[in-house]
Amino acid sequence: MRIDIITGFPKILNEPLNESIIKMGRRKNAVEIEIHDLRDFTADKHRTIDDYPYGGGPGMVLKIEPFYQALQKIFEKREAEKAHIVMPSPRGRVLTQSIVTRLSLEEHLVFLCGHYKGIDERIHEFYKIDEISIGDYIISSGEVATLVIIDAVVRLLPGVIRDINSAWTDSFTEELLDAPYYTRPEEFLGKKVPSVLLSGNHQKIEEWRRKIREKITRERRPDLYEKYLKSIK
C-alpha cells in the first residue's frame, strides 16, 4: 500500500509514523508512507497556508491552493483514479472496523489533514473525497485523526502482524467487543485465571469467549449488540 499525507504540521506525524505497528509495516515493505508539507506548495514568501473565512466569524480556514498543488504533484507519479482520498472530518461517516477493513484493501490512500475551521470547501469540487469521523468530539488537528485511521489500517495489511488471527478477533469484528484476556501467573493475590482457559479444550474456550463477547457487548454497547443480532438472523 502507498499512503500520502498532506499536512501543514508534519512534526505531529513524524515520530508516531516511525513507531510500533506502523514502523513494522514500513520495515516489512507492506506500506510506503510519504508526508507532504503543505507549506512547500505555497507561493508567497511567508508560506501562508490559512486565511480568514469569507462571511466573517471566528477562526481560520486552510487555503485551497496548496492542497490542490500537493495533490497535483502526487498524481503526476500515480493515477488519481486509483487513489482513495480521505479527509478526517466531524461531518464524515463514523469510522468502524468494517470501514477500516475496506480501506486496507486500497492500493493508494491520500490523507488531507485539516486544521482550524477546516479546508476551503472548494477542494471537493476538484476531487472525490471520503470524509471520515473518528467520533463525536473535536480534536485540534486532522493529523491526530489521520494517525488513528492509518494505525487501524496498517495493522491489517498482510505480513504486518505476525498472527493475523489476532487482528481478526479484536473488538468490533462480527459487531462484538472482544473477550478479556489473561496471562501468567495463573493466580495473583488470590485472583485466578478462569479455569476453562487452562483446560486445553479449544472448543470450550471458543464457546466461553463467544458468550463473554456477547455478554460484554450487550451490557456495554447495546447499540452494537442490536447490530450483531441482526447480522446473525
Explained architecture:
The protein is an alpha/beta fold. It has two domains: 2-154, Alpha/beta knot (3-Layer(aba) Sandwich), CATH 3.40.1280.10; 171-231, Orthogonal Bundle (Trp Operon Repressor, Chain A), CATH 1.10.1270. The protein contains eight helices and nine strands. The protein has helices at residues 11-14, 20-27, 64-77, 97-103, 142-154, 164-168, 202-220, 222-231, and strands at 2-7, 32-37, 50-51, 61-62, 83-94, 108-112, 129-133, 187-188, 191-192. The strands form three sheets. Strands 2-1-6-5-7 form a five-stranded parallel sheet. A two-stranded antiparallel sheet has the order 3-4. The longest helix has 19 residues, at 202-220. The mean pLDDT is 93.
The CA-CA distance between the termini, in Å, is 35 Å
- What structural class do helix, strand and pairing data support? alpha/beta
Give the helix proportion (percent range). 25-40%
Give the overall pLDDT as a whole number: 93
SS field, number of helical segments:
8
What share of residues are in beta strands?
Answer: 15-25%
| Gross morphology | elongated
| Uncertain parts | none
How would you name the oligomeric state of the polypeptide chains in this document? single chain
Strand order in the sheet with the most strands: 2-1-6-5-7
CATH class of the largest domain: Alpha Beta
Query: Whole-number radius of gyration?
Result: 22 Å
Number of self-contained structural domains: 2
Q: CATH H level of the largest domain: which superfamily?
A: SPOUT methyltransferase, trefoil knot domain
Major β-sheet, in short? 5 strands, parallel
Order of helices and strands: EHHEEEHEHEEHHEEHH
CATH-scheme architecture of the largest domain: 3-Layer(aba) Sandwich
State the total count of DSSP E strands.
Answer: 9
